[in-house]
Design goal:
- By secondary structure, the chain is mainly beta.
- The chain has one domain: Jelly Rolls.
- About 10% of the residues lie in helices and about 45% in strands.
- The strands form three sheets. Strands 4, 7, 8, 10, 11, 12, 13, 14 and 18 form a nine-stranded antiparallel β-sheet that branches. Strands 1, 5, 6, 9, 15, 16, 17 and 19 form an eight-stranded antiparallel β-sheet that branches. It has a two-stranded antiparallel ribbon with strand order 2-3.
- A hairpin with a 6-residue loop joins strand 13 and strand 14.
- The N and C termini lie far apart (about 55 Å).
Length: about 325
């Protein structure tokens, strides 16, 4: 009883303790905000990306396209834009249509040109897989800058994407478009050597390190009425969580322009931002922060776009239009 009286906190002490806890909690929240970088903040890297305003903008496809993911054929030379800012992936190949078009209504003020991406044949050239496949179109980063960007520079990328009226979408529920970054980390593995211990059938364990590439980002998934949904709609999917899982994002009930952004901070985390419209992103547009696949990012090498369809020779993909893909660094 005496112990309780001697050590029982006064009302003033209680208030002080509550204040300290509140201060620490607020500090933790503030630290979390400081740790994130809103995509589009900082210095724009003019040598990377494109605004598609040049009236003579052109893409040289150099067919047939690559399909290394399916048959290990990269079919060089790769497709590339006249200004060398946009190029074909040697892993999956470029979209069938890569074409400058007039900017749809409601786009960036003053923009007269944007880029149409669309595909019919997304698998191996001259072969119909009857499976969902995708094409990739990359933004030239490492060649323009002389190498990858360390995450210490807070790299981020932003793009405006035009979602066409629902009746123009491929009549299929599933992923239709992707906006992703290519990141690198160092992965440590324990393997057994080829030298075998005497009288035993196993090698000596040894530790090796290798560069691991991974590709977090957004997918836009269509929910089609033809597959039983009450109304046509779409959803943003976040790729990926720490176990590689896809994370549901905002629902999209009206087509039109969207702004998507991805940033990577020095702690190796990936931050996802998006909103309807073409205005610059703000902290209010933060959707998720992840350590995709459990990896800690060290470098960004490129960002790119996916066009997805059912590779059946009949189902043309949704016509995707992008504008002003841009790269930023924020060294603060």
């Amino acid at each position: 009883m005496l112990f309780r009286k001697l050590f029982q906190p006064s009302n003033l002490q209680r208030l002080c303790l509550i204040g300290v806890v509140a201060f620490v909690g607020a500090g933790t929240v503030a630290a979390q905000f400081r740790a994130r970088t809103v995509p589009g903040r900082g210095q724009k890297v003019d040598r990377v990306g494109d605004d598609f305003e040049a009236e003579d903008w052109e893409f040289y496809p150099n067919p047939p396209k690559a399909s290394s993911n399916l048959d290990k054929q990269d079919r060089l030379p790769s497709g590339i834009s006249k200004n060398q800012r946009i190029y074909e992936s040697t892993y999956r190949g470029e979209p069938d249509v890569v074409k400058r078009v007039p900017t749809p209504a409601g786009g960036i003020p003053g923009s007269n040109g944007a880029l149409l991406l669309q595909s019919l044949y997304t698998g191996v050239p001259n072969f119909i897989s009857k499976k969902q496949q995708q094409d990739d179109l990359l933004v030239n980063v490492t060649t323009m800058l002389g190498g990858p960007i360390p995450v210490s520079q807070n790299p981020s990328c932003v793009v405006r994407v035009f979602l066409p009226p629902w009746e123009q979408w491929e009549k299929r529920t599933g992923s239709s478009f992707g906006f992703r970054v290519e990141l690198e980390t160092t992965k440590t593995e324990t393997v057994k050597t080829q030298f075998r211990r005497m009288f035993r059938g196993e090698g000596f364990p040894t530790t090796t390190t290798k560069v691991e590439q991974y590709w977090p980002g957004f997918f836009i998934q269509f929910h089609s009425k033809v597959d039983g949904h009450k109304e046509d709609s779409a959803m943003l999917l976040i790729r990926a969580g720490s176990r590689g899982e896809e994370i549901p994002g905002p629902m999209i009930t009206e087509p039109g322009w969207w702004t998507l952004g991805i940033s990577v901070t020095p702690d190796g985390l990936v931050h996802y931002y998006a909103h309807a419209g073409i205005e610059p992103l703000t902290e209010r547009d933060h959707i998720s922060t992840q350590r995709p696949y459990g990896f800690t990012a060290q470098r960004m090498t490129t960002f790119f776009f996916n066009v997805v369809n059912m590779d059946d020779g009949r189902s043309m993909s949704t016509p995707w239009i992008i504008d002003d893909p841009a790269l930023y660094i924020n060294t603060r």
